[in-house]
């Protein structure tokens, strides 16, 4: 499988705290890769570096062969509005906008008409079981409902790569499984790649491949969270 996204030798620290200490990783076209590991091992930092939100201190992140670490912030943010979809671990929705407005926003930024954006937003909210909340503000929704809206918003632009940081963290097991099943369905249907960050073994099981991070490096033993010691 051709690597759509390839990171090599990624290092990233926050002041004196190293978060990534030389990570190499590949994601193929249409491949679903889970990144697991204990709290604080660097999963979110890795996702942010791969999605071009954070710049690694050293190392390369190549997307379709081009090194994103050399791109301007404007070029990387354009990529996130078009080919990348990002689901953050915390703080997803714009509180002043309704669910439908939140989901429509990436399309409006990409130049869609209000009518077309609204139509797609409604469709994607429905796919994730929160269609009836289209006109609600995030403050009036449960954490899990907000998370499902955020999934809809990350997918509404039909990205080539979805970066999902604990996408089911606020959901009960059954709803989490439904959301994951739908994300996998979208990935298979469109050949979308997914980088799935999770600390839950049953979530990682949805992926084609699992990468285990420990203290900012890939654990070469490859023993995932589902493995018995
Ligand atoms: N903004 C920040 N400022 C300083 N240190 C940070 C910051 N963000 C993360 N860190 C540190 O970097 C390391 C990796 O953090 P990161 O958030 O990437 O871990 P994680 O694997 O996503 O954890 P969790 O499973 O709890 O979400 C940790 O030691 C953390 O304390
Ligand atoms: Mg995290």
Q: In total, how many beta strands?
A: 10
Shape: globular
Element string (H = helix, E = strand): EEEHEEHEHHHEHEHEE
Strand order of the largest sheet: 6-7-8-3-9-10
Strand content: 25-35%
Distance between the termini: 31 Å
Keywords:
229 residues; alpha/beta; six-stranded mixed sheet; four-stranded antiparallel sheet; 7 helices; 34% helix; globular; binds magnesium ion
What does this structure look like?
This protein is 34% helix and 26% strand. It has 229 residues and is of the alpha/beta class. Helix 3 crosses helix 4 (114-127), helix 3 packs parallel to helix 5 (143-155) and helix 4 crosses helix 5 (143-155). The radius of gyration is 17 Å and the shape is globular. The two termini are 31 Å apart. The relative contact order is 0.20. Magnesium ion binds at residues 43-44, 89, 165.
Give the topology:
Elements: E1 3-14, E2 17-28, E3 32-36, H1 43-50, E4 58-63, E5 66-67, H2 73-82, E6 84-87, H3 99-109, H4 114-127, H5 143-155, E7 161-165, H6 173-190, E8 193-197, H7 201-204, E9 209-214, E10 217-218
Parallel strand pairs: 3-8, 3-9, 6-7, 7-8
Antiparallel strand pairs: 1-2, 1-4, 4-5, 9-10
Bound molecules: adenosine-5'-triphosphate and magnesium ion.
Overview in brief:
The protein has helices spanning 43-50, 73-82, 99-109, 114-127, 143-155, 173-190, 201-204, and strands spanning 3-14, 17-28, 32-36, 58-63, 66-67, 84-87, 161-165, 193-197, 209-214, 217-218.
């Amino acid at each position: 499988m051709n690597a759509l996204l390839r990171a090599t030798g990624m290092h990233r620290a926050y002041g004196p705290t190293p978060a990534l200490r030389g990570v190499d990783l590949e994601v193929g076209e249409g491949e679903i890769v889970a990144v697991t590991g204990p709290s604080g091992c660097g999963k979110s930092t890795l996702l942010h570096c791969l999605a071009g939100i954070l710049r690694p201190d050293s190392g390369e992140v190549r997307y379709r062969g081009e090194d994103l670490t050399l791109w301007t912030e404007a070029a990387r943010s354009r990529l996130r509005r078009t080919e990348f979809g990002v689901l953050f671990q915390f703080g997803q929705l714009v509180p002043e906008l309704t669910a439908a407005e939140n989901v429509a926003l990436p399309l409006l930024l990409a130049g869609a008409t209000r009518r077309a954006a609204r139509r797609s937003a409604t469709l994607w909210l429905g796919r994730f079981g929160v269609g009836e909340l289209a006109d609600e503000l995030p403050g009036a929704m449960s954490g899990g409902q907000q998370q499902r809206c955020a999934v809809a918003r990350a997918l509404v632009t039909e990205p080539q790569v979805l970066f999902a940081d604990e996408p089911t963290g606020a959901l009960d097991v059954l709803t989490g499984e439904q959301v994951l099943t739908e994300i996998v369905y979208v990935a298979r249907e469109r050949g979308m790649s997914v980088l799935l960050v999770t600390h839950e073994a049953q979530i990682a099981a949805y992926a084609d491949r699992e990468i285990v991070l420990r203290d900012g490096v890939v654990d070469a033993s490859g023993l995932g969270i589902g493995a018995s010691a």
